[in-house]
Amino acid sequence: MTSRRLAVCVFVTALAGCSHAPPRVQLVEDWPTTAPGSYEAVTTAWTRTATLRGAYQEVLDLAATFKSAEWRYAHAVHTAQDRGLAGSELANTLDAAHADVSGPYEVELMVTTWDRRENDLDRGAKSVWHVALVDEAGHEVTPLEIVKDRRPNFVVRAEFPAFGDFATAYVARFPRVTPLLGPNIHQVRLRVSSERGGVEVSWQSP
Fold it and tell me: Whole-prediction pTM value?
């Protein structure tokens, strides 16, 4: 079996390993007018996980949180509550989060690799991994940048409970070359692949 064919087989195996469907979410950028739910519940709804397994060991474990308008609103409210903000300070925090919605699409990536040398998503084109968002037509959108989230682990874990003990956290930013969210969008996918295979997760609308 060729290495390319083997990679495809591993990729398919990784996708088939999903045991249950993740929750559906509203794939829109409308700024919420009311609290969409607790921060923990919203973060869980917008987080997807996948595992790539090789012949003898786990190759990659991925958790990805899409920072949608709903997530940014919930995160801003959560931050304000933690800091005891009110009045104009609360309004400024929400306004800043709202402004972020019009920037690049952003996904928090939490990655664990069996070979730690392969945990190198921040190396750009030199990385072992190819990372892309995929629109409904199947077009890939490659990131503007992927940078390490250099905050202390306990801070990242408090914000993203899916952050594992041996994971490295990254922030991936994608350009708005095509609408990935909107009222007529039914699905957006994230693909992480290499010569050894790949994983794909998706966010789907109700």
Answer: 0.89
